[in-house]
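Bit of a strange request maybe. I'm writing a small parser for structure token strings and I need a real example to test against, not something I typed by hand. Could someone generate the tokens for this chain?
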Amino acid sequence: MKKSYVSVIAGIVAVASLTGGSAVLTSCSSKNDETKVVEATATPNATEVAATPEVTAEPTTSPLEETSEPSQTPEATTEPTESPKATEEATEAPATEAPAVDYSKLSDDQLVSTVVSQISKKYAGKLTDIKTMNTMSTEERNIYTISVFSKDATQSLYNYFKGANNVTASFVSEALGAVGASSSQELYDDFVDSMRIAVSSPKKLAAIKKSEYHFDIFDEEYAEYAKTEKLDTLLAAYIRNNIKKLNLN
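Reply from user aminoacidic:
Good idea to test on real output. This should exercise your parser:
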């Protein structure tokens, strides 16, 4: 039986060795040649007991790396500046005056048309006001008066008195005398005086009634005088003689 006891102990030690532990024999006794194994415990290897699960440390991220993103610096914008040359070019060039008209090279018709146009432009928008007639120079007034009278009176003196050009009616006699149309001047003066026509009042002339005056008599005689006293020719000569007094350029 002693041999059996030894065999049992050896077996326990062998098991303990295989498991990596140690065998502790708590109580072992022999009675009546019988072997009793009261308790045999295998203590696990200390390294297995103390072993803790391996903790893998996660790589830490720097707070700066987590929160701060690369800042984007706004690109500086610069407005294009205009060069002095560009500024100069943008500035409007001062208006240049029209070249002076060489009146000596114009025909009679061109001369009359040019000068009358210049006078009309000079007093634009005011030629239906009798006050304007009084502010004109004598030469300007004579030229403008003859130009409108010859055009309107050729149709009828009545048409002239009724139209907007009647503001020149009180200056017709003077203008006819100035250009040398003495016969037409005398005819005009006689008719106005005999008919007691208020030529100085444009409003009264505009209200005149054809049936109350013998305009047909005047028109017939004026047409005869116009054949020898051509107002356009006389007016062109008057302009040439007074061109330096006009100051129209």
